[in-house]
């Protein structure tokens, strides 16, 4: 390009580029880039392209394009170009979409700029990509991108209610993806991406009510996924995601009424926290997810959850079992034995055997509802007598009550001996114990033969004794099998 064809601003930029000098034509730092007017602040995209793809340099200098506050007309098409110099076009207004598909650049900074769209599929950046405070009317397409030093989208505004406002699927980021305060009118797609550092969506707002607000299926994160204060309309999908540290939804507001609001099936992380989050509006799916700690108050969870295969070591905050059991009752899959076992194990792990037994008892009662009538009847008997073996003191109570009943009955109405003049004398309490305890023989039961109503009482004591013995044995067996 002949330098004589350039406008004064373009000539100024052309001469500053070989030395990396910054050109700032912003009259006011608070100026809205969308309002940039005047030929004196206009730069043609073809001039920038020619400058970046040329070989202009000066000895001892580091060329760089550093322009702030310009209006860039025409299409800046750098597709599949090799650009060896840093690009810093900040607080600029781009008339047309920025085309960076397949581009290999050293460093890109478009902070504070206004763009119709950014097409950068398979982009490679050896440094960082900065879109802080940007306004992009359409979408930012970064699928299959390789960004070495991180992506910065803090306080950017993307999308126009399309399906995707930001696409980073299959991308590889060597540091963090930071998008604090991001506003996205459309979904964010991070599926199958690899982020070596953190994904930071603190205080972001994402709206995609008819689809996925955040699709991070099979995402790999090297440190943490911070979504504290995140507000979403649409599904959050973390299916198969692996996060080395914690996943945080502290003070988040997740909403997808009538659908799945939080899907984290087969997800793995050290900790999942929803501390101080608002109640989730929509379903939660946690099939086969795995965490060391889950931190959430009971009121955070919605009316419908799916917990089959979920594993964890501890729950926070520490609450009585009664406060946690209501969630298991709301499982859309019905009775899920594994969920009760996980909850009981978490209490045993911290030495709270009483709450662990409470959970196990609740499991047996829930299971009873799935059984045929005759099994339900036996279940009710076990529950009433010894609480399925998890309330063994009940057996002692029943035994003492029946012992007093039998002692009073047979103490006032002695049963006749089987053989007169032979056998031991009647001892009413010992005789009653002999009837109640099916294994121990005190020599009283076979020595006397009660009649009438007292004979029926003896039958009742024998039957109840066998029931108590059987239910206690079943409870002991269950206890030993869990050790």
UniProtKB/TrEMBL annotation:
Keyword annotations for this protein, in alphabetical order, are: Membrane, Transmembrane, Transmembrane helix
- Per the record, the domain of life is Bacteria
Q: Would I find Transmembrane among this entry's keywords?
A: yes
Q: Which residues cross the membrane?
A: 456-477
What's the name of the protein?
Membrane-associated oxidoreductase
Q: Which organism is it from?
A: Streptomyces achromogenes
